[in-house]
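Recall from the previous lesson that a structure prediction takes nothing but the amino acid sequence as input. Here we apply that procedure to Cyclic nucleotide-binding domain-containing protein from Leptospira langatensis. The sequence below is the only information supplied.
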Amino acid sequence: MATILDFVHSVFTKVYSKDSFIFKEGDESDGNMYFLFQGNLKVFKDRPEGSDKAIKELFPGEFFGELALISGRTRAMSVQVLSPNAKVGVLNKSVFEKLEKTSPQFLLLLLKNTFEKLNRAEAKLESLYAEIHKKEEEAGPVPTITPASPSEGAII
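The prediction returns the following tokens.
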């Protein structure tokens, strides 16, 4: 039975320099997921006002980009190199499909990682909801606006 190690030779590696992007939010999926071998990466989302919101820092041994590989959707976040350089392994769709069929350990690791990401996102949403709710309570009741009746001189 094949293991993840049997496919290591099929993983293409690439070295990225500081501040370069592995991919950017909104990019079309290239059919790849990535493994960080050396260096540090920043995962972030763009904000409408032009700044970005750091989501997570990635360290060697972590993988990313699997959601776009599986779903084929555009990239949901940007990934940029923080360290002087980063060595990244690139797992393409065909190797992924072989692993999918032969390595339940790989799929379990991928599933656990995805659940961790979902749990972090859910916790963040709950925190934001609580913060918004608290601000609404501090602001007091929102005044209601009653439409004027025609007898009060409203323009009809």
